[in-house]
Amino acid sequence: xxxxxxxxxxxxxxxxxxxxxxxxxxxxxxxxxxxxxxxxxxxxxxxxxxxxxxxxxxxxxxxxxxxxxxxxxxxxxxxxxxxxxxxxxxxxxxxxxxxxxxxxxxxxxxxxxxxxxxxxxxxxxxxxxxxxxxxxxxxxxxxxxxxxxxxxxxxxxxxxxxxxxxxxxxxxxxxxxxxxxxxxxxxxxxxxx
Length: 193
Description:
By secondary structure, the protein is mainly α. The chain contains 10 helices and no strands. The chain has helices spanning 4-15, 19-41, 47-60, 71-91, 94-104, 110-130, 133-144, 149-156, 160-180, 184-192. The radius of gyration is 19 Å and the shape is globular.
């Protein structure tokens, strides 16, 4: 499965409803997707469910997959999007926030960590408030309220390309500001993806 010729055959067989080709893809990609997901989520709980959903989506779209050149980025993009949904869901859950805090610092530092979390959140909120009005509106709908690009486009009566454009600009602005503050990696993975 490591060479392109086998991937070509698997993609072709997949389009012909061959379940064995899906199993072969699963066997090859599972360890990579698991490690990618673990580094993204920082905890292993729920990763198997996400990976299973990735392969359900691949099976559902098997007739549309026509390029082996882009398949690797395709499967990781699906995984990334599902991980983002999971992160948003987890960060809206107070119990999960507490678990992550407990994982990141020893108990004796938990009150200090809570203060730091509040400071970081305030920093992010201040940066978001600096965005141009339309970018801020779209960013909040996407990253805070969890709406899809399509849902935002319908709500604001604009194209999905316009939504993507504004989110790209907003994330670029925030990334640059957070990098200047030395907070980029911490906040980027936990708040903005």
